Amino acid sequence: MNDVMKELIRVAVALAMSCESCLEKHMPLAKELGATEQEVQEVLNIVRNMKLTTTMAVDELAISLSRKSPTELNMVETTGSSCGCGSGKC
Question: Which string of DSSP letters, residue by residue, matches 43-59?
């Protein structure tokens, strides 16, 4: 894999993770190494589409869960969660 492709992957990951400082570092490097505007735009479009798809899926889950009664939901403990929500299941 060449250096341009590696840097474009870094740009994609930075956008996927919403890491501004990573984007500010890797976008110029990708261009300095010779990434074309078309290549950059293709990477950005792919990541945007993937992020939108997962966002919509989580939104749909939230709507579905909001319509259930407490007895229909799996109630979880409120300690030990890795995401900070307290569920212990994340």
Answer: HHHHHHHHHHHHHHHHH
pLDDT in tens, the chain (90 residues): 999 999 999 999 999 999 999 999 999 999 999 999 999 999 999 999 999 998 899 899 999 989 988 877 776 555 555 666 666 666
State the total domains in the chain: 1
Residue 50 in any domain: the answer is: yes
Domain membership of residue 73 (yes or no) is: no
Instruction: For residue 17, report the phi and psi dihedrals to the nearest 5 degrees.
Output: -90, 0
